[in-house]
Amino acid sequence: MARRLPVVAIVGRPNVGKSTLFNRLVGKKLALVDDLPGVTRDRREGEANLLGLDFRLFDTAGFEDEDPQSLPGRMRVQTEAAVAEADVALFLIDARAGIVPLDAEIARWLRGSTTPVILVANKAEGRAGEAGILESLELGFGDPVQISAEHGEGVADLFEALLPHIDRGDDGDDDDDDADEDGPLKLAIVGRPNAGKSTLVNKILGEDRMITGPEAGITRDSIAIDLAWPHEGGARPLRLIDTAGLRKKAKVQDKLEKLSAADALHAVDFAEVVVLLLDATRGLEVQDLRIADRVLEEGRALVIAINKWDVAEDPSSLFQGIRKALDEGLAQVKGVPLIAVSAATGKGIDQMVDVAFETREAWSKRVSTGQLNRWFERAIEANPPPAPGGKRIKLRYVTQAKTRPPGFVLFGTRVDQLPESYRRYLVNGIRRELGFGAVPVRLTLRAPKNPYGK
What we know:
Binding site for GTP 2: 191-198, 242-246, 307-310
Keywords: GTP-binding, Nucleotide-binding, Repeat, Ribosome biogenesis
Binding site for GTP 1: 12-19, 59-63, 122-125
Strand content: 15-25%
CATH topology of the largest domain: Rossmann fold
Distance between the termini: 47 Å
Subunit structure: Associates with the 50S ribosomal subunit.
Structural class: alpha/beta
Shape: elongated
Order of helices and strands: EHEEHEHEHEHHEHEEHEHEHEHHEEHE
Mean pLDDT: 81
Domain EngA-type G: 6-170, 185-364
Strand order of the largest sheet: 2-3-1-4-5-6
């Protein structure tokens, strides 16, 4: 069952920018925005995402202190209902206009509510809002979060203010990912021509579903086959995608081969886990690394299988050599799973598919913001960021913005000067200590905008 999303209500008098903020957080122009006050007459709602925090957002009508039977009065009733239902309310004021009597009236009413309130000063860019920001302290909600809803400034500070109220901790964060993991594992098998892809698929299926032969490029199209994969906990659904061989561009001559190579890359786009099949009789070639790099660039989880293991010469030395070459050639992801298989005899195929399921689990994993920042604090305490030119880089917090592949956003000051080596230190720590293994991990650096910066 999908978890209940926390609810955030935007409250404020007319024309302070509630609808503009709503549109920015929801990402769609669901609310009508106009310069005339009172344009939003009914409560609008939508699913919002702020740097990895998911919540339902209510955009309330402008608060009017009128007879409940009048239109402004009915708008006020809608606002009160939204605040009562919310986990936290964003009380929006216009920093440029300063505090007006209606702001003070709304503040008095909100102080009597049991819903936590975050004061947000909109239109705070430039110097025109300084006086209004100082005046807002008299409302009794502490320092306001300074933003510009129109220009997207102050997003990081708004995230930090919302975090204690709407992060759900470790409970229920993985529900959406579990739903994906219940579906069939979309497994694409790619590799150079004649690596044995179709023979491997036939062995997995236990029947000759595809024509196989020694000629390269016999599989012209990608073919998807659904099956139940036996497992000790019960059969697991698997969607197997066999693709045309990927060979060097210079050798892709005829139109049919060009279409086949494009189809193989298309199959990677729709896969969750990609098995790159190597030929043990030829070892690891530059083209294999290019294919692996392309799979990781596309954000797919990667497993590498060495086929024809039954006829390999000096298999132990071959395995170690390929392992070393992979770790050097795929520097962005260390420790990609490497499995020895034989499509002819079936050796290693069970292990290969089991590893693919485990890799998808890591690729789909989500950690709570609280758990992530506890790790983050330990990581920067053990190895503080450098201070280029004697000026300290301050890293504030990190959040997971997405899964499949896992993506993280790191906030701090002067992050544009953070060395690549330190970014790698953090990414490797995320993989090692938070259970992401050898899947592609994205780390984006963000600096909070200073409303007075310009």
